[in-house]
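Hi, here's the filled form for the chain we discussed.

Project: internal
Contact: R.S.
Residues: 142
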Amino acid sequence: MLDQDGKPIELGRGAMGITYKAFDIDLRFPVTLKVISEKYVGDESARLRFLREARAATKVRRAMELRPISEDAVDGPFIAYYVAMVYALANQPDVALEQLNSLLKIPGGELNYGDLKTAPAWDPLRKDPRFDKLLAELAPRD
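And the returned structure, exactly as it came back:
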């Protein structure tokens, strides 16, 4: 899929490659396409790790498709929260933060300051200013 400038729609960058928004013409369904970085193409160990991460991301996205927030106000946000966590741990900060920001808009949702501030799963996002901004929005007020 392309943006208005004709460029591929990038969903996130990780240590091993880039993830794009795509469309499966056989399934007629939006998908993500993860492209491995050139420097890892010849490294069999890296290739296998990349493949495992891509398959895990596919399963995570599928969970979101099965129980979207828009159709399940109880479990949808819960699943979305853990999807964001998986993306954070898989070094996909753009996708993780996009998911967290969507959860921020849900009153009484799964996001809470204490968990984001202390849970080790969010460590990969701690140096990102966007994560700091999210924490500031959730911080307790006097």
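Let me know if anything looks off before we file it.
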